[in-house]
Description:
Elements lengths: L1 H18 L1 H9 L6 H13 L12 H6 L2 H17 L5 H9 L2 H7 L4 H24 L6 H20 L15 H4 L7 H26 L5 E2 L7 E8 L26 E4 L9 H10 L15 H7 L3 E6 L11 H6 L4 E4 L18 H11 L4 E7 L36 H29 L2 E8 L4 E2 L7 E2 L7 H4 L3 E5 L1 H6 L1 H9 L9 H9 L2 E2 L20 E3 L5 E3 H5 L1
Amino acid sequence: MKTINFKKNIYLAIAVLIVFSPNIYYSIISHEIVSPSRKIAFIVFSIGVHLIPLVFFAKRIKWFMAAFIPFAALAPLDIFFISLYSYPPTNSVLRDIMETNAGEAAEFMQGFRTPVILMVVFAVVFAVVFIYCLKKMSGAVNVKAAAGLSTIFTAVTLLTFFTTQQGGENKYVSKKEVFETRIGKAYPVGVITHLTRFYLERQQLVKHRMAVEGFHYNLKRRQDASEKEVYILVIGEASRAGNYGINGYSRNTTPNLSAMSNLISFSNVCAPATETRTSLPLMLTGASPADYGSAYEKPGVITYFRKLGFETHWISNQIEMGIYDKSVKSVFTDEADDRTVLNSAKGDIKDNSIKYDGEIIPQLKKIISESKSNKLFIVLHTIGNHYRYDFRYPAEFDVFKPSMKGRDDVRINDPASKEIKINSYDNSILYVDRFLSDVIRYTVSLEVQSGIVFIADHGEDIFDDERNLFGHGNKAVTKYVAHVPFMVWVSGEYVKRHPDKTAALKSNKDAKLGGGFLFQSLLDMAGVTYEDSDLTKSVFSDKLSIGKRDIINTSFQAVDCNRLLN
């Protein structure tokens, strides 16, 4: 009889190992958890935090374990992600999965056919083996043993909230970050905590809509209503300031922009966040990165222009999100009078339906030529330099070689592919140069008072140091993600009208920018003032004086940008 019970407990142990296998795998390969004692501690904690209620289900253990069936099946997906990035999925990752579409997923999975097939196979195997163990395991476990384990697991979990870690690999973790940095890494409870945050973010978006509707505006502007004015904000994507020739890069990646008159490139600009969906709200509202939530309590800059009588438009070449999309992109774009999206959710890389940013220009020309308004504010949201880089430019811009162009065997996280990724990335910068210069040339032809502001939402890691980080939204914030391009072009008519603002632009080009400067600068460019105007954050003002500037990571922690860029 004892032998039978022992065998049945073995089935229970196997079932537990299947469910919590991502935690075991993470502890083995993690660069954050170095010492053997901490690896064991993490495994004990990550399993124990889920088994705290074990004593209450000691006599119904099968029912308790049955709740883990879906997590057993999804465990290979978590392991797959950890194998790519060396840490578990974060809130931002789950959010992106919820909001992605077939075209975007296809781009990401290029070079992953075999791993994806294996992941699906293992998902089936894990689920089948888990259910088999569930049937074979004992229906009850020893109540005293379960009570003892529950007590130990509860104590370990509570200690997580009341202990601090110091020195070397064990950095101090504040209490408010426990869910993100400790419990958030423990599969599968981490999935639940991140989905909870996903829901709370949705509530923030609702709050923003209410803020726009109930905001009290006290805007002032001294301009001739009959004079034609066109102001354009171009938002770049995943763009590194250091890879722009105009900023001193060794390669001439900006031959057109470097030759433009009345164009000023600012050399020391910090992005407010490491991802588009967190960066855009801060850029468009002027909220401080250290107070991210306040971005949803006020309208964006588009609404300010619209309230002043400007006709407002948002033209996006960003790929549309999926069925859950009412995200940052759509909420802030909905402030505009008109919204045009070039890339639809049906986009597929195989049928070339993912458009290049140059496709924005015909739409821009159409809007301006057909507009009956003398005042226009237009946002161009580009796909820019988002991975895959070779999909962002036509063949004629494939200058730096060898590149990724025409290849489908390039793994996203392979440091050995650094050279071809850098070449492809620089080629995509060449195309940004052409796109921006074409927008400027067209605006010049209008012969009206106009200004164009270009800024990227964040930069990009491309295996730049021993950490071999790639992409953006990594836990560690690097200067390559923080340092973004920022350029301002003004027309000859604008220079004549505003010699003081133009002079300020030139004198401010080396200023350390961050923390709400874009919002204030756009309004100041158009001569807009309101009760909370702050010219110390405007590049068009001789009062510019940016103080503290931060960038927030995927855990919403503020990182000192001065430390990164200096």
